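Milestone 3.1: sequence recovery, worked example.
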């Protein structure tokens, strides 16, 4: 823990982070419908380190906000580069941390990065969790409404294990539900999980969510 904490403080300045882009694939067609930007740490001694081994430390140290802004800026710059290379437009999902989301600077910061990188906001999807939303529902609605007004999309991550409140699905400006991995991993092995996922699908279609 002390090693990670000491090194993490220098990692941003030393540009030791990079992004992996995990494809989101439509099973029916095999078409790549989007990407998820996933941060990695290229540690000088230990090589590639996954977020689970350093994100919790970054959150405690308050480094998660500059780290999150770096991820957003890097992903937007990559979107712009793909566009300049003439590639088919693709949506990139970017995780927003709880500290970022609760900041009153979030909207102005993200919009400033969009202008700076000249990325198309319609190709950006922000991923947030139910827990983050419910900490302050009124502020969440205000924040997400402003971001969606410029074309950004919003996804709720880990749906099904948090509050799962139908009220927030009604009130919030959302585009996508991401079902929690525990349900997906048990598909075809647990009939109860199959029924839960089927119910979420039906709910999503009814609410016009992806």
């Amino acid at each position: 823990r002390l090693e990670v904490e000491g090194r993490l403080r220098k990692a941003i300045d030393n540009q030791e982070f990079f992004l992996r882009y995990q494809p989101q694939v439509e099973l029916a067609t095999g078409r790549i419908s989007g990407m998820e930007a996933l941060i990695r740490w290229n540690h000088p001694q230990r090589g590639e380190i996954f977020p689970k081994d350093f994100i919790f430390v970054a959150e405690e140290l308050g480094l998660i906000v500059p780290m999150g802004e770096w991820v957003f800026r890097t992903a937007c710059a990559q979107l712009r580069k793909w566009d300049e290379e003439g590639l088919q437009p693709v949506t990139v999902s970017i995780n927003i941390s709880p500290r970022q989301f609760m900041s009153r600077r979030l909207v102005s910061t993200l919009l400033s990065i969009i202008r700076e990188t000249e990325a198309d906001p319609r190709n950006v999807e922000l991923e947030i969790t139910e827990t983050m939303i419910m900490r302050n529902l009124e502020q969440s609605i205000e924040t997400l409404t402003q971001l969606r007004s410029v074309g950004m999309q919003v996804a709720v991550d880990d749906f099904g294990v948090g509050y799962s409140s139908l009220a927030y699905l009604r009130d919030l400006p959302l585009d996508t539900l991401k079902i929690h991995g525990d349900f997906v991993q048990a598909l075809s092995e647990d009939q109860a999980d199959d029924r839960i996922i089927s119910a979420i699908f039906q709910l999503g279609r009814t609410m016009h969510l992806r």
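Strands lie at 17-25, 32-43, 47-49, 91-95, 124-129, 153-159, 176-179. The chain is about 50% helix and 20% strand.
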